[in-house]
Amino acid sequence: MTSLEPLSHPAIFPWVCLAFGLCVGSFLNVVIYRLPKIMQRDWESQCAELRGEAPAKQEAFNLAQPRSRCPACSHPISALQNIPLASYLALGGKCAACGTRISPRYPLIEALSGAASAYAASHFGFGLAAFGAMGFLWCMIALAFIDFDTQLLPDSITLPLLWAGLLINLAGCFTDLRSAVIGAAAGYLSLWTVYWIFRLATGKEGMGFGDFKLLAAIGAWVGWQMLPFVVLASSLVGAIAGISLMLAAKHGRNVPIPFGPYLAVAGAVALFWGRPLTHAYLKLF
Question: How far is the C-alpha of 285 from the C-alpha of 138, rounded, in Å?
Fold first, then answer.
């Protein structure tokens, strides 16, 4: 018996992945908050260089520095105060120093990451497919929340995700390599075509280039056969959400709505249930 055999047992593996997924969720909170700010700093630095100016000196700011702290009072968050879910519950959802309420979104993302990891482990069992699915889901969570907050889909996530999809399908985990390559190309070109048709017809940009890259990445993971399902499902959910927001008077007609979260949800559904759902739909006809 190898040292990994107890962890790979079907009754244990999902629980191990649940615990690990909760920790990853804590890191995803950092990525979601800091990555757009890091990108903004890089853009400002590049603009300063183009103007012939020296970039302004600022505190080191990346995914590791500075240490996590309360945004209200800057109190450093200790390791015991940063345990996924448990610390939030123990602190009553408030900062230990100043009592400012902590956004419930932080434990929500941790719980979502943990549950998604456990489900992937249960669905695929111990192996490359389960670990690949977990990585895919973590990227989807980060991209969905970043796009929701900032309407950005960072290349630093979407492009590595695309290449990872092609590499993991060398082993045929989710589709064959041919389907993955065609899926990446078709995913990008399909939304690129829609973008230009809409722009030529209206003079406006209907979506961002990050959406093209995200659909390309999803195509690389699930294959070109699942792209119609992903586009249809994401468009349907996006349309319902957009109409609901307009009816609730929270969004005007000219206020852009991020498409990335709907693509992320549809991509995750396609990874697990895309083929059964497609077959069930086709049987109706």
Answer: 36
Task: Please report the beta strands in the chain, taking only residues with DSSP state E, as ranges in sequence order.
Answer: none
Question: Which is nearest to 139 in space by CA: 238, 256, 229, 221?
Answer: 221
pLDDT tens profile 3-20? 667 777 778 899 999 999
Determine the Cα–Cα distance for residues 180 and 62; give it in Å rounded to an integer.
33
DSSP single-letter state for residue 194? H
CB 55 within 8 A of CB 49: yes
Omega before 14 within 30 of 0, i.e. cis: no
Vertex 191 angle, CA 190 and 193, to 5°: 70
Residue 160 predicted with pLDDT over 90: yes
Buried b (16+ CB within 10 A) or exposed e, 162-178: bebbbebbeeebbbebe
Three-state DSSP class for residue 98 = coil
pTM reported for the whole predicted model: 0.90
Count other C-beta atoms under 10 Å from residue 273's C-beta: 13
